[in-house]
Amino acid sequence: MRNKKKLLIEQLDQKLANFKDAGMVLVPQKGWVNTIRTTLNMTRDQLGTKLNLTKGAIQKIEEREATGQITINKLKDVGNALNMKFIYGFIPKDGTIENLVNLKAEQLARKIVLRTNQNMKLENQGIGDEKINKTIKELADEIKREMKKSLWD
User: For 121-150, how does the pLDDT look when each residue is reduced to its tens digit (9 = 90+)?
Assistant: First the structure.
């Protein structure tokens, strides 16, 4: 990877590391708004008053959150009304952005090398498994260095 891209990936991985443990937290079935409100023994009327909304509007907010149909701005508003800070982010499934790039580069390299080797086999010029694996690794390293947009196709 070029130095600038590599640095950007490292910086982003450092920022996302703060969210790592958040990925282990399960969202309550009824959503956070309902769970926090009921834990605080707050009625929908009381939360509605803080947001200048009706009891029915709060119920809709809770339903929309539970079904994933709520806006980020609405969650920020509710957070403020509950004297809480709403935070959102993304957590790489493979641990880090660097791992994600490595995985995608290897997948692309494997696809290219195996396709090329298949064509060579048809011409009786195929290469062995050890050479294939070495070629995949070398190509993956080159793909990571270049960070072409085709990595995400």
Answer: 555 555 677 788 888 899 999 888 888 788
